[in-house]
What does this fold into?
Amino acid sequence: MGGRYSLWSAIGLPIALAIGADGFRRLLAGAHAMDEHFRTAPLARNLPVRLGLLDVWYRNFHKFTSRSIAPYHAALKRVPAYLQQLEMESNGKQVDASGKPVAFGTSPVLWGEPGTNGQHAYFQMLHQGTDVTPLEFVAVRDAAHDLEGHHPKLLANALAQAQALMVGKLDEGGHKNFPGNRPSTFFVFEKLTPESLGAFLAMYEHRVFTSGALWGINSFDQWGVELGKVLARDIEPRLASGDATGLDASTAGLLKRLSS
It folds into this structure.
């Protein structure tokens, strides 16, 4: 669903149509439970606060510039794309809430794929690349299907990847060396339900708010999106006319290629 923080509102109508009114109410109930946890839990046991602090620790003290997320469940395959918008559109800012430049890094690059895809793609870099990228695993303990043997293999792979990132392997040398000591976080759903998904998404919202508050930025504006929209209104009629008057050389050259 497009629009950060909006899936709980009227814009969530397609969700309600897809899963039914009862399912949507259960999604809201899970989010509300997390809202209350964030509002009332002591800071030492407050999950969004602890995660927001971890984000600042990674970004500003360890200088990690990106974070990856790998859900080990097919139904969560679009979660990384949703969280990209939530985090980077909210906290991808270079000035604080008063408009003054910040003196530190803010939002990391958030990216990912389902773990079963990532293992055969970018996990190579996570394990042996020159840059350290924290990884977040999302696993579901109880399967919603009865495919015998499938789910334990899935969970075993998630656990094994987390173990390999942590402990590494240094006894063979050369190309087979894994440095280890690479950070990961492991989220476990007991079951994937509307309530648990709602709580997870709300947890991420409050986490992003927490890190944004610590950085002193406004997590709820998005001026970086607006400039492109304004420029597009000028460029669109030029595609038909080919008129490049007043454009910079790069944009004029691209316009010529695309309008011819």
The first strand starts at residue 66 and ends at 71.
